Amino acid sequence: MKGKLLIATPELLTDNVFSQSVILITDYHDDGTVGFILNKPLMVRVNEVTNLEFPHQLYNGGPVSPDRLYYIHKIPDLIPGGYPVYEGLYWGGNLEELRRKSELHDDLADKIKFFIGYSGWSKGQLEEEIRNGAWLVSDKKIDPVNVNPKTLWKELLVETAPEMELWKNAPLNPELN
């Protein structure tokens, strides 16, 4: 499951956190699952809410630990200690080392993505949600740092389940229609 994408199905359309979400699974083990929502940008940048001098867009990674900063990246040489998700993509690492080296590199925007919070499931919880139709699972390898958050869910939904094309233009909360 690690490295796979979860695509929210219309079953989750009324849930404000996971509605039309695409989640990258970064860790999957016997105790549970960790992932980050790739397509929920926040209205703030990293340097506006942390003591880090990164003017990067900040994303809502999920409802767990919403007071903590997380990141995925493609620069293991600048951020040692990250956990491999799949070839060329890492989760976390030594933030102090990144802070120190970032002064030498001002071109990191297309190599790192920051999140507040993460998405997590306890043992068996995610599998149950998948069986109940809440999530589609995709093996597609994308560049999660450089996706278009406005179109990612629609594209993956139709690609993974063409029969759901009707839903790609559904409003976030159909009850408000």
Care to give the gist of this entry?
The protein is an alpha+beta fold and 177 residues long.
Strand content: 25-35%
Q: How many helical elements? A: 4
Number of strands: 10
Structural class, by secondary structure, is: alpha+beta
Give helix % range. 10-25%
Mean pLDDT: 88
Largest sheet: 10 strands, mixed
CATH topology of the domain at 5-66 and 117-176: VC0467-like
Second CATH tier, the architecture of the domain at 5-66 and 117-176: 3-Layer(aba) Sandwich
Q: How large is the radius of gyration?
A: 16 Å
State the end-to-end distance: 36 Å
Which shape, going by the Cα principal axes?
Answer: globular
Model description:
This protein has a domain at 5-66 and 117-176: VC0467-like (3-Layer(aba) Sandwich). It is globular and about 50 Å long. The chain has helices at 46-49, 95-102, 125-131, 152-160; strands at 5-8, 22-29, 32-37, 41-45, 57-60, 64-73, 83-86, 89-91, 112-122, 135-138. It is α+β, with helices and mostly antiparallel strands. Strands 1, 2, 3, 4, 5, 6, 7, 8, 9 and 10 form a ten-stranded mixed β-sheet that branches.
Topology readout:
Elements: E1 5-8, E2 22-29, E3 32-37, E4 41-45, H1 46-49, E5 57-60, E6 64-73, E7 83-86, E8 89-91, H2 95-102, E9 112-122, H3 125-131, E10 135-138, H4 152-160
Parallel strand pairs: 5-9
Antiparallel strand pairs: 1-2, 1-10, 2-3, 3-9, 4-5, 6-8, 6-9, 7-8
